[in-house]
Protein: ABC transporter ATP-binding protein
Organism: Thiospirochaeta perfilievii
Amino acid sequence: MLKIDNIHTYYGHIHALKGISLEVQQGEIISLIGANGAGKSTTLLSISGLEQPRSGTITFDGKELNGMTPDKIVSLGITQAPEGRRIFPGLTVLENLELGAFLRNDKKQIKKDIEFMYTMFPILGERRNQLGGTLSGGEQQMLTISRALMMEPKLLLLDEPSLGLAPIIVAQIFEEIKRVNRDYNITVFLVEQNANQALKISDRGYVLQNGVITMTDTGENLLKNDEVRKAYLGA
Ligand code: ATP
């Protein structure tokens, strides 16, 4: 579904991605794990068109994404839920969700989908008329993910969904990611420093170090791998 082939992405003179290749198959959950500054966010930005790789190719469903604008890439079915819970603080929960569906015009289905988000995260339903900015960090993260799902993506990109959240909320969020993947056939590519939780729900994972992929295996094997355990799982 998504194929990244030897991309190099720069910020001025900073060589952030140094020849990254990876693949995401339809229906998979894939994790990209790595320390601070490894290049995880840059990889997502390169996929969503917000940073253009200087060389290498990215293809999605056989179409080359290089040079496409971010909105064109969204229209192909790739949606990114940004890091840091970037919701609209001055809009209500409901309005935030409606905005997520701005490219759609199937009003009835949009309503149904919003109700679905409320069953997935009941707290959002309880707070539907509350301003986004007044939600807790965990609730804002739930809203970020739900808003991204309102786009009906084929491929959902998640940037550190567990960042700064209490373990119990993290567990709930990962469980729901697994559920939308399984029940709604949404392919998920997520980047995480919280390697443990991410790898547990992942079919496969890639380890990124200083802009280079150093390892790839099934989520299960990476969890058992000594190097991964030492570097990313605090073992
Ligand atoms: P984090 O978990 O801290 O977000 P990351 O793995 O997502 O880390 P990136 O944010 O992709 O890492 O950063 C990769 C490299 O590119 C780092 O060396 C970072 O300092 C650099 N970098 C990222 N964004 C910019 C920018 N806008 N301008 C210059 N350098 C940047």
Remarks:
- The pocket of adenosine-5'-triphosphate is lined by residues 11, 14, 16, 34, 36-42, 193 (CB under 6 Å).
- The chain has a mean pLDDT of 93.
- The first strand starts at residue 2 and ends at 11.
